[in-house]
Amino acid sequence: MMACKAKATLAGAAVLLLGAGAAHAQSGDAAIAGEMRECRQLRDEAARIACYDTIPVGQDQGRGQGQGQGQGQPAGSPAASPAASPAPAPPPPAARAPAGFGAGQLPRPATSTPAEPDRITAQVAVAIEREPGIWLLTLEDGAQWAFVDSVPPSYDPPRRGKAVELLGTALGGYLMRYAGQRGIRVHRVR
Predict the structure, then answer these.
(1) Pairing assessment for the beta strands 119-131 and 184-188 based on DSSP bridges
(2) Please, are residues 175 and 183 in contact by the beta-carbon 8 Å criterion?
(3) Where does residue 179 fall: left (phi above 0), alpha (psi -120 to 50 degrees), or beta otherwise?
(4) Digitized pLDDT (tens) for each residue of the chain, 190 residues in all
(5) Residue 87 and residue 84: Cα distance in Å, rounded?
(6) Antiparallel, parallel or unpaired: β 174-177 and 184-188
(7) How far apart are CA 138 and CA 127, in angstroms?
(8) If we measure between CA atoms, which residue out of 142, 183, 151 comes closest to residue 164?
(9) Is the dihedral of CA 157, 160, 161, 167 positive or negative?
């Protein structure tokens, strides 16, 4: 029973493959749409897949590249003449950076922006204690950095005109060092 079904499937696929050559001689999207409608009506999955596989997908898969010659088209027909060959395919679109949830973890395409340094030294313009142990520092270039964690009262906070060192960490965070004290986690506010 299974052998008969397999033979019938193969025979149906062979008929479709042989008959597809004449259908490919037609040009235009209407012919392709008609072929797809015919394939959609097949009940057997293997035959339907084989039918879809015979439909040309792009310009370089048979249409306009000499396939029409020797398949029942006269030598003077438009498909057989080199002047009637289709235009070359458009160039592929430029690579875009992935977007959406989790896109930050995907590799980004190379850009021409210079690499960010992994450490800088800057002068403090303004230091404000927002809450006990949490400081907001405004640097001379206008950048504002806030402490992520509270520091103990024994910590000597940066003062106006003093130099601080900002370091990038392995996981994308930042540390601030001041006057030989332990590094404090900070984040950029502005």
Answers:
(1) unpaired
(2) yes
(3) left
(4) 555 565 656 655 555 555 555 545 555 678 888 888 888 898 898 888 888 888 877 654 444 444 444 444 444 444 444 445 556 666 555 566 666 666 776 777 766 667 778 899 999 999 999 999 999 999 999 999 999 999 999 999 999 999 999 999 888 889 999 999 999 999 999 8
(5) 9
(6) antiparallel
(7) 6
(8) 183
(9) positive
Which tokens belong to 63? 């249409």
What number of other Cβ atoms are within 10 A of residue 51's Cβ? 24
Q: At 11, list the tokens.
A: 């025979």
Three-state SS sequence of 131-173 = ECCEEEEEECCCCEEEECCCCCCCCCCCCCCCEEEEEECCCCC
Confidence (pTM): 0.42
> Token pair for residue 160?
């106006």
Task: Return left, alpha or beta for 62; rule: phi > 0 is left, psi -120 to 50 is alpha, else beta.
Answer: left
Beta strands in 49-133 (DSSP E): 119-131
Residue type, 31: A
